[in-house]
TrEMBL record, chain A:
Keywords: Signal, Transport
InterPro entries the record matches: Bact_solute-bd_prot1 (IPR050490), SBP (IPR006059)
Any Pfam family hit: SBP_bac_1
Annotated signal peptide: 1-23
Family to which this protein belongs: Belongs to the bacterial solute-binding protein 1 family.
Protein name (Swiss-Prot/TrEMBL): Extracellular solute-binding protein
């Protein structure tokens, strides 16, 4: 009895060791793709930073892909900081099949480390058929194409409430001076002119304001140099842009809720404060703000309109952002999805949902659900060679894409103390020097 | 059959508190004497068997605890190219946001555990005396069932700046407004620029040119927000000519809806502003005053002769009180500690209430019989008897506070003024900083800070077991 219990004990112990060793050894076996022409049973994981309405729209696009091919697509949200999500997963050799990168800088970074899969020939053909070379170059590294520009954002616009403009008897301004004058008129009429999303988490809106003014004043060439940190942030051109911005940011009366509220306002709230609760008349937002406006009772095109970001200098600013899809794993599913995202088919589905702009030439303007998008496409094409990619997204993430750090927080501090142009420039340069090394 | 059951608890307790290192020595010496006496041989497993049972746990602990700790220390001593450096450690105390994180962590460690323990103690003592104690405790404990992330989202809303959205500011504004006079037209003021009939003086608005008795004044105002206008505005009209010793005039919103109105002239569709206090001032002294009617007109009576200034005093225009800046530079850390208090006071209360129930009643009764007041009983008897429990709660909370992350991440939203070391650790290594060396250094520092509290807890547990 005693012995048998011991033996039993030893056996159980040995079993435990064996099973735990097996557990520690890990079972890395991948589910083999079942093949087949229809991609039935193929699982594709997509990671993107979209949440809320943007995510819902993207899920509908993925749904169209699923219906077309029979593959199963899962969506993973990367959160606001894409690199923080993808970095560890790449290190662990377990990346999603397809990732949507919000910055071209990340594409270069991953491509340099060999962590991306080059596009297959049929995807390249699809891209060439639908996109102008500018977009292909943006998503290429070392002569190889890695990305498909899934979605472009047009950032050189301001949204406004036409009723507020009509009450104050003003027209959308074409120049910065007019914008300041109109803001004063709006205020005289009893309407707060702006909401500003200057919370730490959403200070990217401030970088967009700055970039529009800078591109307009200093021109595309200086803009490129600043993006590569070939011009220091202590340069007089930067100071001039900040002084220009201070004409609006420096007047707390111009901002809904004053400085106290503006520096804590998130982007979503800045849009709904204008079109939902109507606390102000103008908000910066890019075309994607349409998705936020859709959550209010205001109707895009009638209760919410856009005007081009006013010229502060000689150049009419045309800033673009864009989310680039890249494949991180080999496999039929990943490439098929990349091809789908490059096709006009995906663009048409997405365009019908709003909050979306496609640089895809073969998505006809009629595919867009709102007239605003049609207006923006015209602006985008008119800009031609002067169009530039968002500067903060071209900069290293530590400088241009991190809440509470770098350009975001430096400009937020400037909103709090708009008289300190020199100090802000020094701070920007310090942070840039650290990040660009 | 009793013996094995007696023996097992120390082994498991050792594994739980001391970790892998403590288990071996604990198990070893105890088996020795037993084996030599031979009394209980057979009632307990031999050491190799016990060891092999423990092996899976040891392997897991090694993988999940020891290896990461050792590797973090190694990583903290490497720079980005893999060379040896100590800059990561000195870097913790350099740079504005890092210093803020160090300062805030110190505030957290000192304030949060103390506050939570005190509040928990109060709740525990008070719930002993009420009838619905269980229900009350349930409610206080309930936030513990909510994740920190969700609590963060809740408090982000509570602290929202706009009093229309944030309940904290809604309460503050309601209390403030209950004690202050109602402002008629917050934010309104004269037209900007030189040569206007009115100009701002301090918070008040005064006429640029002197006015004399027997004349009529036009006092145009701008920037009147629609929510402060009367529901059905009465069109402004020019005041009737005054009799002797009087001044009449109109205060109105000089902006024609849709634009096109004449500046400083009463246009037909422009609204009069009722309820504005108007004063006639000479040499800083108010000689007459009036309040405007629905159409914005007013009449000042018994006005002495000679030049006067008309003044619309500042209390007409004081900007609406917006509440406290909960998420501003200075209040943000206390505000987040407030959220932490909401979550954790239930935990402290339950533990302390359990300790309270274990206090011998006769000690309290004896003190009362000896004529001690309730406060003296609490201060001189309850607290000393509770001290061990209070210390456990405090130390547990200190450990917990050092790693506070979610609340700060969600409520602070990246604001460096809210930063703490645990958050900074993440930001430096993954959240944009991309510098795992610096992040590891902060992790090691946090580990060293937690260590004394852990050792204290382990020693106390050992002492109690004896």
């Amino acid at each position: 009895m005693r012995i048998s219990r011991r033996v039993l004990g030893a056996a159980v112990a040995a079993g435990l060791v064996a099973s735990s060793a097996a557990a520690c050894g890990g079972d890395d076996k991948k589910d083999a793709g079942s093949g087949g022409t229809e991609l039935k049973g193929v699982k594709v994981e997509v990671a993107a930073k979209w949440t809320g309405p943007e995510e819902q729209n993207f899920r509908k696009v993925l749904k169209a892909f699923e219906e077309k091919t029979g593959a199963t697509v899962t969506y993973a949200s990367t959160g606001e900081d894409t690199d923080a999500y993808l970095g560890p997963r790449l290190d662990a050799k377990n990346p999603p099949d397809v990732a949507i990168l919000p910055q071209p800088g990340l594409l270069q970074q991953y491509a340099a480390k060999g962590q991306l899969k080059p596009l297959g020939p049929d995807v390249v053909t699809e891209v060439d058929k639908n996109f102008s070379p500018y977009w292909r170059d943006l998503a290429s590294s070392g002569g190889k194409s890695y990305g498909v520009l899934a979605k472009a954002a047009y950032k050189s616009i301001l949204w406004y409430r036409p009723q507020a403009f009509a009450d104050a008897g003003i027209q959308p301004p074409a120049t910065w001076a007019d914008l300041v004058k109109d803001a004063q008129t709006l205020q005289d009429a009893g309407t707060t002119p702006f909401t500003l999303a200057a919370a730490s988490s959403d200070s990217w809106t401030l970088t967009d304001w700055f970039e529009n003014v800078y591109l307009s004043q200093a021109g595309p060439e200086n803009y490129d140099k600043l993006a590569q940190h070939k011009i220091k942030w202590t340069d007089p051109t930067v100071g001039k842009a900040l002084e220009t911005l201070a004409q609006i940011w420096g007047k707390p009366d111009f901002l809904a809720g004053g400085l106290a509220q503006a520096t804590k306002t998130k982007f979503d709230a800045s849009v709904t404060d204008v079109f939902g609760t109507q606390k102000a008349a103008i908000v910066y937002g890019g075309d994607f703000a349409a998705a936020n406006i859709a959550t209010t009772k205001a109707k895009v095109g009638t209760d919410a309109k856009v005007f081009a970001f006013p010229k502060a200098g000689n150049t009419a600013p045309a800033l673009l952002g864009g989310d680039i899809a890249v494949a991180m794993k080999d496999g039929k599913g990943a490439m098929a999805l990349m091809k789908f995202l490059a096709s006009p088919e995906a663009g048409k589905v997405w365009a019908g949902l709003g909050g979306y702009l496609s640089p895809n030439k073969n998505v006809p303007p009629s595919a867009y659900s709102d007239p605003i998008a049609k207006q923006l496409i015209a602006q985008l094409q008119q800009a031609g060679d002067a169009a530039r990619y968002d500067l903060s997204d071209l900069a290293p993430a530590a400088f241009g894409a991190t809440p509470g750090k770098g350009e975001w927080e430096a400009l937020r501090a400037f909103v709090q103390k708009p008289s300190d142009v020199k100090g802000t420039q020094r701070r920007l340069e310090d942070e840039a020097a650290k990040a660009y090394k | 059959m009793m013996a094995p059951r007696e023996d097992t608890p120390p082994a498991t307790a050792g594994a739980a508190t001391g970790g892998a290192a403590a288990t071996g020595p604990d198990a070893g010496p105890e088996v020795g004497p037993d084996a030599s006496t031979g009394r209980r041989d057979g009632l307990r497993p031999p050491s190799w068997l016990a060891g092999s049972f423990l092996l899976p746990a040891l392997v897991l602990l090694g993988f999940l605890v020891v290896y990461p700790i050792v590797y973090t220390v190694v990583r903290s001593l490497l720079d980005s190219s893999g060379g040896f450096t100590v800059d990561n450690y000195s870097g913790i105390f350099e740079g504005h946001s890092n210093l803020l994180a160090v300062r805030n962590t110190a505030i957290w460690v000192v304030v949060a555990p103390t506050l939570v323990t005190i509040v928990g103690l109060l709740f525990a003592v008070l719930t002993e005396r009420i009838r619905w104690a269980t229900a009350f405790k349930l409610v206080v404990f309930m936030p513990m069932a909510i994740s920190f992330l969700a609590s963060g989202v809740i408090f982000r809303l509570v602290y929202e700046q706009d009093p229309d959205k944030g309940v904290a500011n809604a309460a503050v504004v309601a209390v403030h407004d209950a004690f202050s006079a109602k402002t008629a037209y917050p934010g309104a003021g004269p037209r900007a620029g030189a040569a206007q009939p009115l100009r701002a003086e301090g918070g008040a608005v005064v006429t640029s040119r002197p006015v004399t008795a027997g004349s009529t004044a036009l006092l145009p105002l701008l920037r009147v927000k629609p929510e402060y206008l009367p529901a059905e505005p009465v069109p402004a009209r020019a005041a009737a000519p005054p009799g002797p010793g009087r001044i009449t005039g109109t205060v109105w919103f000089d902006f024609t809806r849709g634009g096109g109105g004449r500046p400083n002239a009463v246009d037909p569709s422009e609204a009069g502003l009722p309820g504005v206090r108007v004063q006639a001032v000479r040499d800083g002294k108010v000689v007459a005053s009036a309040t405007t009617r629905d159409d914005g007109t007013f009449t000042l009576t018994k006005v002495p002769a000679g030049p006067l200034t008309l003044r619309l005093p500042a209390d007409n225009f004081t900007a609406a009180y917006g509440g406290a800046e909960w998420l501003g530079d200075t209040l943000i850390t206390p505000a987040i500690i407030g959220a932490y208090l909401w979550v954790w006071s239930g935990f402290a209360m339950v533990l302390i209430a359990a300790g309270l129930a274990a206090i011998p009643r006769d000690a309290l009764e004896a003190a009362r019989v000896d004529g001690a007041t309730e406060w003296q009983v609490f201060r001189r008897v309850t607290i000393p008897l509770l001290a061990p429990v209070l210390v456990v709660v405090l130390v547990t909370l200190v450990i917990n506070v050092l790693k506070v992350f979610d609340l700060v991440f969600v409520i602070g939203g990246g604001d460096p003024n809210a930063g703490v070391l645990a958050l900074q650790m993440w930001t430096e290594s993954f959240g944009g900083g991309n510098d795992q060396g610096a992040g590891s250094a902060i992790a090691v520092l946090l580990f060293l800070l937690v260590l004394p509290a852990m050792l204290f807890n382990i020693r106390r547990l050992r002492r109690e077991r004896k």
